[in-house]
Amino acid sequence: MPVGGLDKVSTFISLLRGSKLNVACLLDTFTDQKGKQKVDDLIMYKIIKEKNIRFFNEFANNGKSTADIEDLFTKEEYLKLFNAAFDKEFSVKLSDLDATVVTIIKQINKAISKDRFNHYRPANKLNQVGADKSCFSAKTLDNFEKIFTEINKLF
To answer: I need a labelling partner for 148 at 20 to 30 A (CA). Which of 47, 51, 56, 141 fits?
Structure first.
């Protein structure tokens, strides 16, 4: 279940664990010491086992050590979602993205000259259009399949 960021993970895990559920946590790659400390605290306080924490960069297949869930999609597919979600505000082309920037979210932020955009809007758009597997490339489907395979192995 999406929890809205690393700050809320411990609360949700505690709630789910109280229901005697097995829990795994899939996180955006943290890029600062504060994020690492939060994950270390989850493990130290036995909120979750270290082996049950996985990161999107393990599955993004983008050649980088940092990834968010959005990086599991091909850039073309994610831009299609982004542009549909922000059709009145922004239109970003693949050529607008700076490939030297680590994640697609940061690449888009740079292209639109914003610090942050609401990344829930593209996710909501994906839900609204009722996408099925025919909407995605084999690469994107493979990235998500790897996640489910690995998470299922934990249980």
So the answer is: 47
